[in-house]
Write a structure and sequence with these properties.
Elements: E1 2-5, H1 11-14, E2 22-28, H2 35-43, H3 48-61, E3 83-84, E4 87-93, E5 96-102, E6 106-114, E7 122-130, H4 133-155
Antiparallel strand pairs: 1-2, 2-7, 3-4, 4-5, 5-6, 6-7
């Protein structure tokens, strides 16, 4: 249903952030939905335990000055500059979507690529750039949860 894949970073992915300190890719199958529908299934809904982890994260990081409030330009339009949940849409093409967020500690992008014929045709790649030591520490602390959360979120887009 969902599998972790090892990929080589393409030029297109490398251009999304200045230097990439971490990346991974999870894939699933969905030949029915548009890229926007896939993005909504992955990022706009979460199981209760994932919501609980995000709420815990937001509670804890506010003490060290990281963003927890919606940005001033927040809007829910499914277009570049809009947001899905708290992830900004940076790029939107028929089979390619880039979402993410920038903060003082790290920047990240979540890339959804839809391939027309592969069995596991939905590829979700997370890209992370650390901006400072706090970014290293923060990601070190959340990394054990990252794969569990992303795998669960990608699973929500699965269709036969």
């Amino acid at each position: 249903m969902v599998k972790k894949e090892k990929i080589e970073l393409s030029e297109k992915l490398l251009e999304l952030l200045d230097g990439i300190d971490f990346y991974d890719t999870f894939s699933t199958t969905n030949h029915q939905d548009t890229i926007e529908e896939v993005g909504l299934k992955i990022f706009n809904t979460s199981p209760k335990w994932v919501e609980w982890l995000f709420n815990l994260r937001n509670f804890l990081v506010r003490f060290i000055g990281l963003k927890t409030d919606p940005p001033k330009d927040f809007n829910e339009s499914l277009e570049e500059g809009g947001y899905i949940h708290f992830f900004k849409i940076y790029q939107l093409e028929p089979d390619f979507m880039v979402l993410g967020a920038d903060d003082k500690h790290l920047n990240f992008r979540a890339v959804i690529a839809k391939h027309p014929i592969l069995d596991y045709n939905i590829k979700v790649t997370t890209l992370v750039t650390y901006n400072n030591r706090l970014g290293h520490i923060y990601f070190f602390l959340i990394r054990p949860f990252h794969a569990l959360v992303v795998r669960q979120m990608v699973k929500q887009a699965y269709t036969k």
